[in-house]
Amino acid sequence: AGTEGLSFRLRVNVCRGLGDNPEATSYICGVGQKNSPINGDNTKPQSLETTMRQWGLENETENLKKTLKEGSETLLRRIIEHENRLDDEEKGNVGAQTDVIGIDYILSKRNGVYAPIGIEVNSHDCTINCQLYEFMNPDLAGLSVGPLIQTMCERSQRYAMSGKVVVVVGAGGSSKKFIWPAAKKENIRVVLVDCLPNHEIPDVARYLEYDFTDHTQDETHAKNIVQMLLKHGAELDGCCTFWEDCVPLAARICDMLDLDGIGLKGAMIAKKKSSTQNTLCDRTADIPHFPRTYLYAERCHHIENECDLENAEKSVEFPAIMKLEYGSSAVGVKLVHDMGEAKEHLSSLQEKLTCEEDHPGIGLGYGNSMLMMKYLEGTEHDIDVVLYNRKLVAAFVSDNGPTKKGFFTETAACMPSCLPKDKVGQIVTAAYQCCVEIGLVSGAFNVEMKMTPAGPKLIEINARMGGFYLRDWIKEIYGVDLLRCVFMTACGIKPLINKPKPRYQMMGVMCVPSVHAPIFKNSQTYDLIKNLHTMGHIRYNAIEDEIEDVDFETEEPMCNIAVHAGNVAQAKEKLLNFCTLFHLSTEEYDVNRFLGNFKENMI
């Protein structure tokens, strides 16, 4: 009714988003006489939804919009792929490329179904009517070009970092190998300090050999490394590390060279877990606009012998958690129910784990002392925060499934968080407060917390970028690269991150040797999983480059396999189907149970 003699023209705006991914942003219509040309100059912009209702086609809107989105984004993707094959002269100039297009459509009924027919594509005036529409609807301001602005900021940050010289202390394990090609791609010149076999030295701008294994001598190591750097005459822009054991050492080097960094005080407190908790417990003062910090922490006790255990028993109730004071994994973590179990665990651990060589990479370079603290009930979460000069730049929350019984190793993960919006705000605030209250200044930090019935409680702070799959997931979901954030803050440049919206829901499961070794030792299955990753059907993040390098004698996760979907329910169904197909779920390792908490507005 009311549309006789009228027709409409539909404009879809598509921008080059982060990672060169096309994103359809606006769907704007103009209504006019069907016997005359209809364009942006002789119509007033209105939404696709309103227009479809006007024509009595509201039931067709969802399918039409899906078709428009897929077709329009595919068109820009083809343009990008074509331009990538051209040289600078063929493109028109250095850096010339198509970043935004507008596609005009009309609707045609075919076999009883309305289908869009493209009639024009251009890139010179494609945002005019979209911006007119946003002017009339201020709450939508920036919608049509949002991804393009993000891409422009991304390019600017890449340019700002190009040619920077950054000292990286410690190469880390195989799971950190992505750092070197990623830095090289951004033209960041890495000076790596470590003591590696020749065949393990990565492709970096400069490699300085130095053995810092004994971290009890970090002050001496820092002085020696600074002398080496000055001797080589390197003009340094920053210094950082991605390896847990090297955090205090890198902070000392920053301090001695007067470089921007995470902050020596914060690095030292974060590395010693009991100091982290006890420092926060002492922060009882009122802070305007924030809860009191002590509410996030629990009093801890440093344990070196049985006498320390007996003292701890006076203030820590059983069951309690015991773990390595300087640990960087779940190795050594145990729930103890009485003093007998506590003494037995202390004795066993101090007998088996005496030095770094006993279990490389878990923090034994600082000794094998332990801590005891209250066991916290609730769901476990990771909060990866980016700080610059003590200000919160960004935070990304993920949910963890229940830990594997008896080992406290991670079983499953989900991002974005399924927590209610107010609980996400609560846990982000808690993570930020805990970081700045112990003295962390600038960088990307991984904070582990439990959401208890009374709110968030701190497990520990890792004063470096989150490891394993976290950087990869955050980059895939939000288009934010934590690796670049670390390099930027180390060089005194604030990362520009504009509250990115998640592109999809991701959910993954850990694979462990005791259950999954036979599956991954089957070369056909292993190759199929890697191929599915290459094709984009799954995300496969491994601790080791090759399956032959996995230590099948430990119960540490060997890899994470994840899927992405439109929402939590779809991601869970997709992951469970994959786990069934590849026999990843067993009676002993019940993936369905691990994913049980992952649902919208989980409490």
Key attributes of the depicted protein:
5-stranded antiparallel β-sheet, Rossmann fold, 34% helix, nucleotide-binding, D-amino Acid Aminotransferase, Chain A, domain 1, ATP-grasp, 603 residues, 3 domains, 21 strands, globular, ATP binding, 19 helices, 8-stranded antiparallel β-sheet, alpha+beta, single chain
Question: How would you describe the overall organization of this protein?
Answer:
The mean pLDDT is 92. This protein has helices at 48-54, 61-84, 88-91, 128-136, 146-161, 179-185, 218-231, 247-257, 264-271, 273-281, 306-312, 339-352, 421-437, 470-478, 482-490, 513-521, 523-534, 568-581, 591-594, and strands at 6-16, 22-33, 45-47, 100-110, 113-122, 165-169, 189-194, 206-209, 238-240, 301-303, 320-324, 334-336, 370-374, 379-388, 391-400, 412-415, 443-452, 455-462, 505-511, 539-542, 559-565. With 603 residues, it is α+β, with helices and mostly antiparallel strands. The relative contact order is 0.08. It has 3 domains: 6-151, D-amino Acid Aminotransferase, Chain A, domain 1 (2-Layer Sandwich); 162-259, Rossmann fold (3-Layer(aba) Sandwich), CATH 3.40.50; 273-298 and 376-594, D-amino Acid Aminotransferase, Chain A, domain 1 (2-Layer Sandwich), CATH 3.30.470.20. The longest helix has 24 residues, at 61-84. The radius of gyration is 27 Å and the shape is globular. α7 crosses α8 (247-257). The strands form 4 sheets. Strands 18-17-14-15-16-19-21-20 form an 8-stranded antiparallel beta sheet, with helices on both faces.
